[in-house]
């Protein structure tokens, strides 16, 4: 609660919501820190406990060794005896094995011989088989029709008959006996009848296929061969002519004959094969008997061998156990001895952890303060507040954020990000957040643009996968698509963690991290969004800038030492990391091991000692190298300070305009470029050479600034003032000329300072620069190569609202230019589209070199994020004379119109029109001295005036001044003036420039007019003109000097704001706001009219509780018996007093109110004149009043106004009698309108005083 109550003392707004976040963060950090400390304590304690019990474990190992050694001796003796018996049995087995082997050889030889005979027989028979199978296959082709045809033949041809007879003989079918009347005895043998029966059998083909060809008798074969095969008619070709079926039978008969021939040759061999197989059978029977005998002997030997193996294995086990005991004893002894030194270190670590555990709540409290209340502050400011809180809380021990980290972090921002309970939002990162987060996440960072359409899906996947995700370029003030992921609640179900998103359950990985970054300040985001994140202002400190500068510089000053230092630093970090890992592994192993006998522990300890020695050697070498670098650095300290100061100046430019944002990376790149150009010219990078170039390293930034800011920047960059000196410098003593002007970048120089891959943001004041027309003219003058032809460059113009619809690919390839207007109006959706477009351009290969992309950006409080990827160029019309005139006559529309005019008189009027515009615009810089009410006159008005003049010149042969006034000047300029006095001044200025007003003033501007008014003549003439710009406004020199001093004071205030010394803003008076403290007059008051006016104003002040000083003064007036003088600077409406005077006079004279007027004078009236009222507190602007001569005259010294003693005012009847004196007017405070004519004497015409802006104010301008 004390912290919550103390925060407002340091300018920190502490709300109940922020206090709750602070409490939660404190609890979160405290719990996590205590767990981390206790975990380390547990490891060290377990390690020490293992060391304490080491000797007891050594005794246990010794007892085990004493028990195993006698058993080993017994097993060794039994094993030797069994080995002798096994040797004897082995001899018997070998003898039996030789006999069996001999029998096996004989049996194998007989079997081989029998197999050879069998193979030869089968091979010879196999030669006949194909023909037989072919014949059988031929029979397969017969169908029932063929067989039917064959068997129905009553008188078959001789060849068919012979075939059937042969088939019947082979099948063993007997012939039929039929009566033959031609033969003696009356009967004969006929196979055809038998053949027809055989053919009628449905199994006929099966009998042919399965015919037993091996058992055909020799007699049958002899009959077939002698009686059939020898005949010519028994030929397949002859038979085929009669019957296809008979042809197949013929082929089968021949195949049987062929097979039989081969079988006669094979028969002896088959007989011999039978005898060989009988011999093999007897040999195998004998062999089997011998094998059984061998098996019995072998089994007996195997039993002995198994016994021997078991005893040998037991012996080996005993040996291994004894050896293991000895090794474990040896390792334990070595480990205990080696850890003797570690024990002292671990005791010290435990003591430190105990102390840290005691102070943990205190450290965590300050860390929670830094994270929740001070995260958006600079480290220096944050530490100052923490030190102040320590004093208030009476905490003596210093604190910094490194105290809550186990590992050293190079920045406090990294510590806040790492320990934040909520999602970190890195503000104004300029791309510098990515390297830091990449280091924190060990390179597993996934970078996603906020414009990526897949963002929500990527984050969802990252929650389950445990990814570290950085969402860059956040632009929406309330990014609704991010909000659900800022307050995810983790719950456990079935031993697994989950989160609920959109009503769905997602698995949660505790390694998930979400980071947000933006290039915008925190004020651009909605408070509802900021309450759910930890905003971190990512501004590099002076130390970081100086360190980065030296890292850049040392690479050029001592490159060898720099490379060596980087190499050694990386080696030191690597070794330190390995030592820490080794120590953690060693402690974990000691904590988990049951005994100190693990060889890995000794290896880890040995490796740790080796790494420690290596790190010490590396650290010593690194310190030596760093000392050499530091000695070299001392010579460059002034250079580093100078460049760092310049960088701080550039980064402070955002106080002048939010658009002026330049990343540290970009500024360092400019410095490197300048260094590279120095060394490339062969010069040595010594301190003097670098000091010479350091002021000019950042001159290129000037093209990104407007003129008024460019002057500040150039002055600060080359003034060599320190921050402290800038805060204390006496700005009034400085010569204004010290802030020399630097010219703005001309539009025509754009192609030379940009390239095709760099987008260009053209920064313009609101409505002050004709960018579109200028770029279009410039583009058409550029020629590009397209297919070896020179073509004109085209400027494609689009609104930023249409960026998503633009087809960019054809423009990229053609080399044309594309321009997006109103880029400052881009919504978040348009911004995402622009960033996608720029990314596409960046990744496009072979981009046409002539291509350019431009964005027109009007001044805006919150610049778009994509501007950081652009070359920022500020464009403005020259505000100084005669550059203003030269610009319009050289590049602007004036040159186009002048070329179209037919007479020099019209060109003269065109020239005078430009002069008038410049004078009106310049007069706006002089506040109330220039115009009573501010008017906004810029390039838009001039362009309108030029267009109207061009139209008028095309229809009028000769343009009169009256025609020019009514058709051009009054339309453009007088329409913007709503003050009567300003309208009179404007009318005189028009006459002055076009027809003249008086000799005195006309002679001042006469040198401005050339003899001829063509553009080239005008430009040539202006080069020789030496006329100060204030003369064109008609103002006095003192006014110019006064406002230059005011500008210098404003500059001083801006510089002090840039460097943290904010003062009240100095304002030049331009009229009071009558709406402030509006007075209501609704009270009825008695007394004369003047008293009534004063009483009403007093009553109004009292009701509104305003202006105590005025109330006091008004009461004093009312207490007077007669009111003869009034300090009008202390009343709100002097015009009411004047009206009261007129009304009282009209009532006395019995005339109407309109017949009465009030006039004033500065000289004292004579006693004989009527009664006057004295107006006190009036101020005369633009001139001075000389009481001796009773005339107004030019200003003297440095004053721009004169406080008048009084103005004599009286009411009188209106008259038409002219007055020889000139009239100046008295102006009211609220409306700034003229309320009273004041007659004065002057030897100079009244038009001169109107140009001077001479008038009287009823108040003192501030």
From TrEMBL:
One of its GO terms (cellular component) is dynein complex. Residues 402-611 form the Dynein heavy chain ATP-binding dynein motor region domain. Gene3D superfamilies: 1.20.920.20, P-loop containing nucleotide triphosphate hydrolases, Region D6 of dynein motor. GO terms for molecular function: dynein intermediate chain binding; dynein light intermediate chain binding. The keyword Coiled coil applies. The keyword Lipid metabolism does not apply. It comes from the Eukaryota. Residues 43-387 form the Dynein heavy chain coiled coil stalk domain. Residues 908-1038 form the Dynein heavy chain AAA lid domain. Residues 270-335, 608-635 form a coiled coil. Keywords: Coiled coil. PANTHER family: DYNEIN HEAVY CHAIN, DYNEIN HEAVY CHAIN, CYTOPLASMIC. This is Dynein heavy chain 7, axonemal. It comes from Ascaris suum.
């Amino acid at each position: 609660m004390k912290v919550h109550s103390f925060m407002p003392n340091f300018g920190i707004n502490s709300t109940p919501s922020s206090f709750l976040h602070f409490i939660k963060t404190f609890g979160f950090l405290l719990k996590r820190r205590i767990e981390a400390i206790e975990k380390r304590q547990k490891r060290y304690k377990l390690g020490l406990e293992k060391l304490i019990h080491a000797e007891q474990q050594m005794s246990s190992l010794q007892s085990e060794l004493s028990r195993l050694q006698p058993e080993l001796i017994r097993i060794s003796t039994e094993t030797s005896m069994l080995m002798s018996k096994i040797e004897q049995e082995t001899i018997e087995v070998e003898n039996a094995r030789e006999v069996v082997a001999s029998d096996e050889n004989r049996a194998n030889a007989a079997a081989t011989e029998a197999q050879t005979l069998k193979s030869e027989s089968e091979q010879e028979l196999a030669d006949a088989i194909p023909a037989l199978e072919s014949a059988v296959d031929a029979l397969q082709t017969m169908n029932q029709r063929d067989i039917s045809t064959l068997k129905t033949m009553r008188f078959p041809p001789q060849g068919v008959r012979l075939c059937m007879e042969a088939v019947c003989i082979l099948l063993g079918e007997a012939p039929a006996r039929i009566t033959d009347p031609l033969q003696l005895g009356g009967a004969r043998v006929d196979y055809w009848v038998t053949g027809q029966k055989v053919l009628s059998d449905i199994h006929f083909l099966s009998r042919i296929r399965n015919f037993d060809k091996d058992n055909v008798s020799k007699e049958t074969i002899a009959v077939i061969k002698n009686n059939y095969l020898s005949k010519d008619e028994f030929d397949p070709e002859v038979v085929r002519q009669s019957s296809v079926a008979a042809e197949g039978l013929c082929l089968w008969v021949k195949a049987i004959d062929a097979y039989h021939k081969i079988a006669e040759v094979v028969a002896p061999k088959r007989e011999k094969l039978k005898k060989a197989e009988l011999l093999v059978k007897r040999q195998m029977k004998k062999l089997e008997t011998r094998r059984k005998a061998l098996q019995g002997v072998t089994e007996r030997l195997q039993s002995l061998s198994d016994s021997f193996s078991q005893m040998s294995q037991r012996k080996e086990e005993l040996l291994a156990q004894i050896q293991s005991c000895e090794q474990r004893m040896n390792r334990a002894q070595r480990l205990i001895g080696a850890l003797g030194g570690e024990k002292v270190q671990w005791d010290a670590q435990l003591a430190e952890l105990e102390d840290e555990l005691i102070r943990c709540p205190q450290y965590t409290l300050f860390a929670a303060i830094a994270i929740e209340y001070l995260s958006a502050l600079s480290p220096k400011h944050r530490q100052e507040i923490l030190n102040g809180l320590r004093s208030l809380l009476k905490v003596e021990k210093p604190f910094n954020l490194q105290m809550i980290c186990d590992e050293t972090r190079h920045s406090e921002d990294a510590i806040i990000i790492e320990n934040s309970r909520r999602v970190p939002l890195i503000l104004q990162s300029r791309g510098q957040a990515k390297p830091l987060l990449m280091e924190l996440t060990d390179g597993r960072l996934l970078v996603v643009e906020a414009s990526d359409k897949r963002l929500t899906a990527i984050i969802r996947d990252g929650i389950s996968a445990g990814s570290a995700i950085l969402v860059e370029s956040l632009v929406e003030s309330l990014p609704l698509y991010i909000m659900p992921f800022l307050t995810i609640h983790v719950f456990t179900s079935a031993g697994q963690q989950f989160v609920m998103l959109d009503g769905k359950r997602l698995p949660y990985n505790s390694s998930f991290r979400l980071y947000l970054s933006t290039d915008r300040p925190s004020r651009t985001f909605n408070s509802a969004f900021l309450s759910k994140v930890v905003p971190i202002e990512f501004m590099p400190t002076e130390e970081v800038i100086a360190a980065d500068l030296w890292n850049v510089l040392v690479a050029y000053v001592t490159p060898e030492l720099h490379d060596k230092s980087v190499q050694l630093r990386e080696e030191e970090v690597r070794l330190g990391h390995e030592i820490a890992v080794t120590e953690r592994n060693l402690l974990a192993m000691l904590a988990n091991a049951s005994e100190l006998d693990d060889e890995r522990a000794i290896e880890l300890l040995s490796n740790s000692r080796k790494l420690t020695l290596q790190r010490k050697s590396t650290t010593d070498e690194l310190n030596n190298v760093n000392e050499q670098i530091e000695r070299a650095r001392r010579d460059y300290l002034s250079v580093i300070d100078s460049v760092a100061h310049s960088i701080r100046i550039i980064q402070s430019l955002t106080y002048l305009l939010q658009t002026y944002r330049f990343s540290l990376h970009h500024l360092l790149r400019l410095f490197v470029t300048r260094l590279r150009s120095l060394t490339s010219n062969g010069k040595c990078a010594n301190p003097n050479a670098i000091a010479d170039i350091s002021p000019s390293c950042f001159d290129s930034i000037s093209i990104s600034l407007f003129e008024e800011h460019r002057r500040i920047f150039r002055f600060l960059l080359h003034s060599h003032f320190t921050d402290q000196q800038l805060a204390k410098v006496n700005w009034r003593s400085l010569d204004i000329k010290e802030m020399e002007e630097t010219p703005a970048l001309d539009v025509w120089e754009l192609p030379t300072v940009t390239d095709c891959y760099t987008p260009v943001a053209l920064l313009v004041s609101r409505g002050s620069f004709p960018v579109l027309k200028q770029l279009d003219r410039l583009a058409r003058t550029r020629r590009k190569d397209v297919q070896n032809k020179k073509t004109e460059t085209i400027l494609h113009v689009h609104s930023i609202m249409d960026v998503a619809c633009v087809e960019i690919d054809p423009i990229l390839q053609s080399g044309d230019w594309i321009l997006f207007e109103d880029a400052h109006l881009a919504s978040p959706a348009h911004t995402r589209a622009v960033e996608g477009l720029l990314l596409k351009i960046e990744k496009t290969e072979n981009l046409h070199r002539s291509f350019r992309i431009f964005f027109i950006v009007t001044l805006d409080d919150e610049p778009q994020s994509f501007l950081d990827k652009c070359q920022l160029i500020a464009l403005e019309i020259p505000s100084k004379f005669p550059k203003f005139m030269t610009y319009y006559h050289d590049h602007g529309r004036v040159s186009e119109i002048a070329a179209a005019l037919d007479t020099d008189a019209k060109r003269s009027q065109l020239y005078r029109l430009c002069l008038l515009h410049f004078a009106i615009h310049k007069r706006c810089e002089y506040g109330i001295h220039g115009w009573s009410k501010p008017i906004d006159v810029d390039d838009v008005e001039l362009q309108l005036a030029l267009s109207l003049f061009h139209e008028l010149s095309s229809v009028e042969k000769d343009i009169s001044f009256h025609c020019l006034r009514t058709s051009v000047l009054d339309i453009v300029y007088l329409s913007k003036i709503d003050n009567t006095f300003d309208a009179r001044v404007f009318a005189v200025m028009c006459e002055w420039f076009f027809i003249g007003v008086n000799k005195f003033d006309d002679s001042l501007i006469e040198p401005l007019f050339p003899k001829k008014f063509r553009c080239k003549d005008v430009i040539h003439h202006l080069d020789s003109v030496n006329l100060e710009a204030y003369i064109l406004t008609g103002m006095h020199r003192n006014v110019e000097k006064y406002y230059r001093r005011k500008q210098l004071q404003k500059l001083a205030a801006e510089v002090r704001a840039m460097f943290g010394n904010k003062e009240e803003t100095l304002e030049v008076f331009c009229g009071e706001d009558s709406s402030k403290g509006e007075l209501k007059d609704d009270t009825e008051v008695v007394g004369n009219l003047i008293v009534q006016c004063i009483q009403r104003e007093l009553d109004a002040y009292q009701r509104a509780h305003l202006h105590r000083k005025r109330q006091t003064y008004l009461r004093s007036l009312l207490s007077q018996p007669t009111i003869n003088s009034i300090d009008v600077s202390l009343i709100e409406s002097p015009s009411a007093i004047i009206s009261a005077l007129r009304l009282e006079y009209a009532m006395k004279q019995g005339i109407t109110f309109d017949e009465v007027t009030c006039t004033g004078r500065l000289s004292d009236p004579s006693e004989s004149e009527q009664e006057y009222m004295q107006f006190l507190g009036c101020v005369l602007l633009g001139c001075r009043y000389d009481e001796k001569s009773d005339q107004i005259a030019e200003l003297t010294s440095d004053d721009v106004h004169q406080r008048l003693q009084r103005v004599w005012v009286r009411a009188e009847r209106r008259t038409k009698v002219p007055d020889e004196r000139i009239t100046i007017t008295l102006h009211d405070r609220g409306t700034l309108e003229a309320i009273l004519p004041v007659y004065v004497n002057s030897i100079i015409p009244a038009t001169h005083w109107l140009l001077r802006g001479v008038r009287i104010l009823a108040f003192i301008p501030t």
